Amino acid sequence: MPEAEAPASAAQRKQWSSEPAFVLSMAAAAVGLGNLWRFPYMVGENGGGAFILAYLIALVVVALPVMMLEVAAGRLAQGSVVGTYRQVNVLGTAYGWLVVLLTMAITSYYLVITGWTLGYAIDAVRLAVIPFDAFTAGYNSVWYFLAVTVFATLVLLRGVTAIETISKVLMPVLLVMIVGIALYGLRMDGWQQARDFMLGADFSRWATPGLWLFAFGQAFYSLAIGQGYLATYGSYIPRRTHVPRATLVVAGSETFIALLAGWMIFPFVFTYGFAPDAGSQLAFTTLPRVFDEMAAGAVLAVAFFGLFFAAAFSSCLAGLKVVVAAVSEELRFGDVKAVLAVGAVMLVLGIPSALSFSPVALTVMGMPFLDFMDQFGGTNVVVASGVIGAGLLCWFLPRPRIAYALGSKSRWWEYRIYVVGRALPFVGAGFLVWSVMA
C-alpha cells in the first residue's frame, strides 16, 4: 500500500510520542502480569525446564512473527481491533468482536490480581505483609479489585499519554529490583534445586499435547497475541516506526524478564519448601516470606510490591484500552462515555474471580474461578484466537499492505509472517487431532 493510501484518520489519531515510547508502553503491557505472575506458575505446574524450552520454541518460531503481523495490521487500520479485522471481511468483523469479549474476560481477573499487588504494596508500607492465605481470608480480593478498577477508569480518562508516562518510569526500575532479588536468590539453599528444575528437561513431557498447549498459550499470552492489545497499540504507532525492530525489542525484554522472574521465585520456593505447582498464588505465597527473611526487607517490600502493582496496572490499562477503543469507535460512544461504560461492566465481570479468593471460595471444576478463567481463557482461547486471527489476516489481506505497514525494506519478515500465518490454521487442526488421539 503506497504512502498516499494511508488511512485519513491517521492524521487525527493520537500517537505514541516516538518509537521508544511505543516500545516501553508495549513492553509494560506484555511484561506485566504475563511474566512476573503467570510465567513462574506455568513453569511450576508444567515441569520446569521442558516447559521453558517448549515455550522458547513457540515464541521464536510462531509467536514473534504473529506479533509483528498483529501490530502491522493495527497500524494499517488506524482503529480499534474490530476495525483492524474489518479490513479482512465480514468474518473478520465478527472475530474482532470476539477478541474484545476475550480481552474483557482476561482483564476481569487481571484486575483482581492487580488488586492483590496493591494490597501487598499497602501492607508493605504499613509493615504488615502477611501470607497469602491470611490476606485472602477476608474480602480483600473484592475491595482491592473494586479500588483498582475505579483507579484504572480514572487513568484511562486521561488517554494514551497516561499509559506512556507510567511505562517510562516503570520498566527500568522494575528490572533493577528483579535482578537484585534474583541475585539474592543465589545465596539460598534452594538455588541448586531451582537450577536443576529450570535447566533440567524431562523430554518425555514433550510427548504430551498439554505441555505444548500451555507453552504456546504462555508464548501467545505473554506477547499479548490474539487479545487485541497489539492491533490497538499498533494503531497509535508513529509514522516512521520500524515494526520488526520494535517488536523484537519488546519480545526480547519480555523473555528476559520472564526468565528472570523464574530465577527470582524458584530459589525461594525450594528453600522454604513451597510446592512449585501451587498455582496462581505462587508468587504471592513466596515473596512475603522472601522479604521477611531479607535484611532491610521491609523497605525492599515496599519498593517491589509498589513496582509489581505498577507492572500489573499497566497490563490492565492495556486490556481496558482494547475494549474502550472498540466501544468508542464502533458503537460511537465517545471516549469518556466508553471509558465509564467499560469500567462499569468490568466491576461486574471481575466479581466472580475476586470471590474465588475470599470466604465464598467460588470454584469451577474443582479449581478457583480465577484459575479456571486463566487456564481456559488464558491458554485454550488465547491460542485459538491467535491462530484464527493470523489465518484471517494472511489468507485474506493482500501481502503488500502488511509489507507496507511493517515499515521495513527487508522482505525476510514479510515472507516469514505469511508462511507462519497461512500454516497456523492447518497446524492447529492437526494439533486438535493429536490431542484427541493422545
Protein traits:
1% strand, Hydantoin permease, 438 residues, 2 strands, two-stranded antiparallel ribbon, mainly alpha, 76% helix
Explain how this protein is built.
The chain is mostly helical and 438 residues long. It has a single domain (3-437), classed as Hydantoin permease (Orthogonal Bundle), CATH 1.10.4160. It contains 18 helices and 2 strands. Strands 1-2 form a two-stranded antiparallel sheet. The longest helix has 36 residues, at 90-125. The chain is globular, with a radius of gyration of 21 Å.
> Would you identify the regions where 5 or more consecutive residues have pLDDT less than 50?
1-11
The helix/strand order is HHHHHHHHHHHHHHHEEHHH
What is the count of helical runs?
A: 18
Number of domains: 1
CATH class: Mainly Alpha
Structural topology:
Elements: H1 19-45, H2 49-77, H3 81-86, H4 90-125, H5 132-135, H6 140-156, H7 160-185, H8 191-199, H9 209-222, H10 229-234, H11 243-271, H12 282-293, H13 297-330, H14 335-349, H15 351-355, E1 363-364, E2 367-368, H16 369-396, H17 399-406, H18 412-437
Antiparallel strand pairs: 1-2
Helix pairs in contact: 1-7, 1-9, 1-11, 1-13, 2-9, 2-11, 2-16, 2-17, 2-18, 4-6, 4-13, 4-16, 6-13, 6-14, 7-11, 7-13, 8-11, 9-16, 12-13, 13-14, 16-18
Short synopsis of the structure:
This protein has 438 residues and is mainly α. Helix content is 76%, strand content 1%. The protein has a two-stranded antiparallel sheet with strand order 1-2.
